């Protein structure tokens, strides 16, 4: 069933192209490993099991990694009320609601489809945002679920992990199972496997980052149009980004590994070439887009004002 979140054809095309290119890349990767290691069973089984586990259990893995827990309506009635209202407006299934006991103000969504999704917010976010701002952030996260880009980015991001696992297990199997081989042959295989792995990781890294930046803009746009208050989302973005900047960087480094799933990155990127490696567009780009939507809707977009 299609939700009332504004569809984004360009996002759909980008997701399809990214998955197609990553699929080709990994077919070539697995084929290269089979040729180099002369053992296809181990390579294929590890890749299939790891990817399947990530797809089916991504919500539990993400909650565990982010120290999140599922909360019932009795514990967080206002949070549930906002999610209920947005899901009714968007005509979509209500996801599981979770809270992470982190001071870092942030939120994320995960899950393989709209019927099996989780939306999680941190206690730091709940303490800092006004109701209208929180509504904007939750609409942003729900749009990720409705657009199904959560599942795509989950699978795409995990392909790098699969590559690492395949290389590690396959190489050690070859190293310890290939008795009688000369050391120089083992080193040659190791060098080739590492070279192929590095190339695959680099290409997949750039493809995922490009998709991630666009999907954040698409989620901002869909959330602003659904709620009709882009200024509230702009206010939340400004507030959260500023507050994260004041949190000691050592407290953010663990969370940085999950930047692709967050509402705003735990650690931002510097201007210049490093933007290619960023999971999110710049704050300026996001506020500029929301400003244009405000003008279209006839709303006065003032960052810092909840609207």
UniProtKB/TrEMBL annotation:
E.C. no: 3.4.24.-
Organism taxonomic ancestry: Bacteria, Bacillati, Actinomycetota, Actinomycetes, Kitasatosporales
UniProt family annotation: Belongs to the peptidase M48B family.
Binding residue positions for Zn(2+): 140, 144, 216
Keyword RNA-binding in record: no
BP terms from Gene Ontology: proteolysis
Catalytic residues (UniProt): 141
Membrane topology: Multi-pass membrane protein
Note on how the cofactor is bound: Binds 1 zinc ion per subunit.
Protein biosynthesis listed as a keyword: no
A Pfam family of this chain: Peptidase_M48
Protein name: Protease HtpX homolog
Compartment annotation: Cell membrane
Record field: transmembrane: 12-34, 40-57, 150-171, 187-208
């Amino acid at each position: 069933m299609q939700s009332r979140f504004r569809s984004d054809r360009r996002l759909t095309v980008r997701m399809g192209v990214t998955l197609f290119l990553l699929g080709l890349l990994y077919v070539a990767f697995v084929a290269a490993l089979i040729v180099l290691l002369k053992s296809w069973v181990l390579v294929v089984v590890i890749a299939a099991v790891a990817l399947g586990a990530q797809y089916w259990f991504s919500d539990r893995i993400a909650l565990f990694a982010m120290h999140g827990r599922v909360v019932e309506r009795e514990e967080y009635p206002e949070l549930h009320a906002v999610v209920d209202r947005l899901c009714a407006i968007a005509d979509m299934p209500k996801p599981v609601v979770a809270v992470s006991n982190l001071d870092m103000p942030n939120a994320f969504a995960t899950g393989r489809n709209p019927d099996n999704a989780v939306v999680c917010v941190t206690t730091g976010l709940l303490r800092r945002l006004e109701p209208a701002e929180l509504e904007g952030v939750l609409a942003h996260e729900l749009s990720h679920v409705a657009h199904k880009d959560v599942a795509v980015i989950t699978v795409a991001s995990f392909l790098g992990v699969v590559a690492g696992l395949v290389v590690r297990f396959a190489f050690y199997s070859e190293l310890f199972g290939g008795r009688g081989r000369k050391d120089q042959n083992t080193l040659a295989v190791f060098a080739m496997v590492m070279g192929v792995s590095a190339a695959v990781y680099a290409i997949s890294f750039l493809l995922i980052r490009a998709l991630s930046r666009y999907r954040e803009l698409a989620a901002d746009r869909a959330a602003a149009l659904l709620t009709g208050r882009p200024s509230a989302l702009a206010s939340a973005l400004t507030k959260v980004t500023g507050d994260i900047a004041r949190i000691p960087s050592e407290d953010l480094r663990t969370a940085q590994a999950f930047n692709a799933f967050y509402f705003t990155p735990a650690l931002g990127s510097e201007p210049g070439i490093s933007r290619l490696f960023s999971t999110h567009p710049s704050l300026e780009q996001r506020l500029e887009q929301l400003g244009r939507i405000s003008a279209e809707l006839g709303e006065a977009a003032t960052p810092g004002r909840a609207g």
